Amino acid sequence: MKKVDFERNNNADIVEQASNYLANGKKIIPAIIIIVIVFVVLIGLSSSYYTVEPEEKAVVLRLGKVIAIESSGLHFMLPFGIDKTYKIKTERIFKEEFGFKTSNSSSGRTTYDNRNRLDESLILTGDLNVSEIEWIVQYKIDDPVKFLFKIKDPVGTIRDISEAATRKIIGNANVTDVLTTERASLANAIQSEMQKSLKKYDIGVRIETYKFQDVNPPSKVKTAFNAVNEAEQQKESMIQNAKEQYNNQVPKARGEAKSTLQKAEGYAMERVNIAQGDANRFIALLNEYKKYPEVTRTRMYLETMERIYPKMKEIIIVDGDSSKTGVTPLLPLQTWEGGK
To answer: At what angle do helices 222-291 and 293-308 cross, to 10 degrees?
Structure first.
């Protein structure tokens, strides 16, 4: 009997504990539901807005479809993954390096490494020589939608196009042009070729700059090629100096020649005018002499004396009467002119 009573008491305790647990559970469940609701609301609020930086544009997708391209500022969207945003830095210039790699060390200095990159830098030229070329491509993203969704790997595509265009243009040039004077024109040709290819792929990218970082011949002939390069540079320098001297001296000589010609023309005109005036004056005097010979002769004599006397310091007058007296009259013009 005691055993049966004990079992009955245990069962009663269990039923009582279960009743208490259910009573307490009815109070806990609403609290859990409230916590879940608050948590869901917080998640929804945190995923319902986004911020776009000044150099970015945000592509907004709703259930996988592009619905907007937003510029900088604070924007709102549907939460819980209904709307998704992809931020693209459309105002930043990106750079891809070929044949080398730069990185910032822990000390803040930029390190340069071109090891194990010969598969990119070694290029065969048109005259069957090998050059080691390192270059840089800088580009901007014009259309963020095309950049995101047109192809799978846009950056890898840009690198492949750059390498293909470089090998094509360099492969049509000779090694001397690549190593010496034609680098700028070759870089422009490669940039145009890259932009043409990117336009066909239509991935929303524009090439800003293509620039050779370093161009070297193979190590076995590097010394000889450096000597050729130095000679070419000296040649160009001498040509530029000669052109500069030509531009300085030739205009100056032309100006002096023109000035001399103008002076000669002025002098010739002056002499002709003087001669013409003398001739006209002589003809007029001749006509007067024919009409009045004595008067004209006397006037010519007097005018001649007027020009001669002021230049003389002493004058001796000799006439027929002086030979009888033996006295020669003296006209002391020098004393008179000095006021003594």
So the answer is: 130
Element (H, E) at 156: helix 154-171
Q: Would you say residue 133 lies in a domain?
A: yes
Q: How many domains does the chain have?
A: 4
What's the average model confidence in pLDDT over 235-244? 90
In whole angstroms, how far apart are CA 110 and each of 104, 168, 213?
4, 31, 15
DSSP string, 61-80: EETTEEEEEE-SEEEE--TT
d(CA 239, CA 245): 10
Domain containing 200 equals 94-103+113-217
Q: Is there a single domain that holds both residue 78 and residue 55?
A: yes
The pLDDT of residue 15 is above 60: no
- Stretch 310-332: mean pLDDT: 58
Alpha-carbon distance of 139 to 208, in angstroms, equals 5
- At 37-51, the pLDDT tens digits run 777 666 766 778 888
